[in-house]
Write a structure and sequence with these properties.
Elements (H helix, E strand, L loop, with lengths): L2 E5 L4 H12 L5 E4 L4 H11 L6 E4 L2 E4 L3 H10 L1
Parallel strand pairs: 1-2
Antiparallel strand pairs: 1-3, 3-4
Length: 77
């Protein structure tokens, strides 16, 4: 399973999402979209959204920290 979290350092919901993944011991790649405009474009292309967090679980996109949807998606992966 490949999990990517598109985030910013100041986003409280990004911190909650990453803490949730840490708690569940699910490895993920944290992509700080403030560091590279290309990463922002990649996130927008995947999600259609400019807000963070955007979480990509094996191609399933979750916008925002939606605990129930994230648990359900991780359970299928």
């Amino acid at each position: 399973m490949k999990v990517t979290v598109y985030s910013t350092p100041t986003c409280p919901y990004c911190k909650l999402a990453k803490a949730f993944l840490d708690e569940k011991r699910i490895p993920y790649t944290d992509v700080d979209v403030t560091q590279d405009k290309k990463l922002v474009e990649e996130m927008i292309n995947k999600s259609g959204q400019m807000g963070v967090p955007v979480i990509d679980v094996d191609g399933t996109i979750i916008v925002g920290f939606d605990r129930k949807k994230l648990e359900k998606t991780l359970g299928r992966a």
